[in-house]
Amino acid sequence: SHAGITVGPDGATHQSLEDMSIMRSLPHMVVASPCDYHQTRKMIRASIDLHQPLYVRYFRDNTPVFTNPDAPFQFGKADKLIDGSDVTIIACGLQVWEAILAEEILASEGISVRVINMHTLKPIDRACIIEAAKQTGAIVTAEDHQIHGGLGSAVAEVLSQSFPTPQEFVAVNDTFGESGKGEELMKKYGIAKDAIVAATRKVLQRKTR
């Protein structure tokens, strides 16, 4: 319940920034990071029939509730929230909402952005990632986690094996956290909407197809 940088005043000793990397390395472990209340509720209900060890990463701060409570949920099956053709932002947890906000900014500039909620990091939705790479030709990953071993690494593993594609990483860059308000810390550590916008512009400069 203390995942990511947004724990706030409790600081680095209570901020779990390496957990997804650790849990992904455990055999047979399902690793999930819901983006809001509705999805968290669906995950817990779905876990009853999972019959596997499960790690669900959720957050302490209040977060926007924006997903459809009636939409179906399946572990390992990503949600395409917004379709686009120029670039894809793949996010998990709190960064899904930040990705939606970034898409609004980029859309105003005429950039068509696909936004994917990759709520399950293991098993990851390989087909969704490969389809996005083939159809948009550029990928940005966004997460409230260390840059090593989390969502960005999981996506890069798929791309390197199946369809090499320019990718930019929005994540905590190999440093410990600190005390502060969640929103301020996201900006300081470069994982808020503005950082996602900047990473998207950067990856588009590298796009070759």
Structure, described:
Helix content is 35%, strand content 18%. It has 209 residues and is an alpha/beta fold. It has one domain (5-206): 3-Layer(aba) Sandwich (Rossmann fold). Helix 3 (95-107) packs across helix 7. The longest helix has 14 residues, at 193-206. The mean pLDDT is 93.
Q: Which architecture per CATH?
A: 3-Layer(aba) Sandwich
Summarize the amount of helix as a percent range. Answer: 25-40%
Straight-line N-to-C gap: 41 Å
Strand-pairing-aware structural class: alpha/beta
CATH topology title: Rossmann fold
- Count of DSSP-assigned helices: 7
CATH class category name: Alpha Beta
Strand content: 15-25%
The overall strand count is 8
Keywords:
alpha/beta, 35% helix, Rossmann fold, 209 residues, single chain, five-stranded mixed sheet, three-stranded mixed sheet
Offer a concise description of the structure.
By secondary structure, this protein is α/β, with parallel strands linked by helices.
